Amino acid sequence: MNEASPVQQSPHEIIKIATAFWTSKVVLSAVELGVFTELVRRPATAEELSAALSLKGRGARDFFDVLVSVGLLEREEGVYRTSALSAAYLNPDDPVSDISGYLLYLNSVYPSRTLLSDCLRTGERLNYDQALAQAATGRAAGTAPGARMLPVGADDDTFGEAFATPDQVTGFVRSMTGYSMGAHLALTDAFDWSGVREVVDVGCSEGAFLAHVLRAHPHLRGTGFDRPQVGDRFAGHVGAAGIADRAHLVTGDFFTDPLPAGDVVVMGHVLHDWDLDTKRMLISKAYDALPEGGRLLVYESLIDDERRVNTTGLIMSLNVSLVSVGGLGYTGAECTSWMTDAGFREASVSHLDGPEYMVVGVK
Q: Tell me: the pLDDT tens digits for 166-211?
């Protein structure tokens, strides 16, 4: 019998990973309850903050101090205030820089992830909207939330319900703005915009990418391309960013319509939602929309080529497999190969921010 090798690491290395959801839920609930919205306007003691938010649980002070421990609040002589990080990105009064919409989305889908094991066993996908509805019903009734699954191939429109009502459109586009904030900020400098006049953002949502890039580069003009339902949100967002005179929306369906022409075509967090044939089709459409020397810019939370390191990219791919008809994430090497197959003469991968990378193809 071979003697087992001694293990030098603590078992708490595993427990820390397994209990990460405890901390994440504190942050998500803090956004839902309005902690940051309240404190960005005025500092408060634990008692004052609990009263303002109608919190009665005896764990409220622990709740606030968890947020201190992770760097999202500061506390001095018993008075809480936002940290520089939360003040910058968790302030709904500043919609151009606020990422609260994405955290509210995460909070809403949190219960549905209890079905991960079932989805992996059956190959069925989450009925996203049923999961949200049942989660809301469970909260209202004080019962455990539930969710349903759909057979693969049912409801071929992955995003149909996200555009069903004005409130759902608002929630969806704000979540997209929130998750993409790091990439948008990085792209103002990481990409060479000097020779570009017109940039086209495919799947533009409320226009957050154009808001950041056009504000940073006053010589640029921008076209957003998305479904008609985002029109009001797009107008409001680019108006708040002060670029309404240089950005406009073209509505359509990228399955059936050609893409608007521009010097740079951008696809941010778009390709992962679709199967391989659709990925290739969209890249080919971008090629057709570009002039000679034009560039396709794809940004994404990529999976690393060896599929060992970029945990966020792998998790995002897993998540999209649970809710989409055929979507999966991909590596930088895969994306560059699709670009060269479509006719782009060169393609390269560069890091942007956190888990975000850009892949650029030159026609």
A: 787 788 889 899 999 999 999 999 999 999 999 999 999 999 999 9
Report which of 22, 208, 201 is spatially closest to residue 99, judged by C-alpha positions.
208
Say which DSSP state 59 is in: T
221-226 and 247-251: which strand pairing?
A: parallel
Pairwise CA distance, residues 79 & 163, whole Å: 42
Burial of 128 (0-12, 13-18, 19+ CB in 10 A): buried
Instruction: Round the average pLDDT of the chain to a whole number and report it.
Output: 89
Annotation says 272 is catalytic: yes
Active-site position among 184, 248, 272, 351: 272
Report how far apart, in Å, the C-alpha atoms of 112 and of each of 43, 67, 149 are: 35, 24, 10
* Spatial distance between the Cα atoms of 300 and 183, rounded to a whole number of angstroms: 8
Residue written as token pair 């996200």: 162
Q: Rounded to 5 degrees, what are φ and ψ at 218?
A: -65, -15
Q: What is the pTM of this model?
A: 0.86
Q: What DSSP line would sit under 160-217, residue for residue?
A: TGGGSSHHHHHHHHHHHHHHHHHHHHHHHHHS--TT-SEEEEET-TTTHHHHHHHHH-
Which residues is 338 bridged to in the sheet? none
Q: Output the six-digit token pair for 347.
A: 């393609």
Degrees to nearest 5, angle at CA 353 with 111 and 26? 30
How far apart are alpha carbons 355 and 314 in whole angstroms?
10
Backbone CA torsion sign across 326, 327, 331, 334: positive
- For the chain, what's the residue count? 363
CA distance 267 to 309: 24
Rounded distance between C-alpha atoms, residue 352 and residue 363, angstroms: 22
Torsion of CA 205, 212, 72, 36, to 10 degrees: -60
**335 burial level (CB within 10 Å; 0-12, 13-18, 19+):** buried
Residue 247 scores a pLDDT above 70: yes
Give CA–CA dist 326/180, Å, rounded: 22
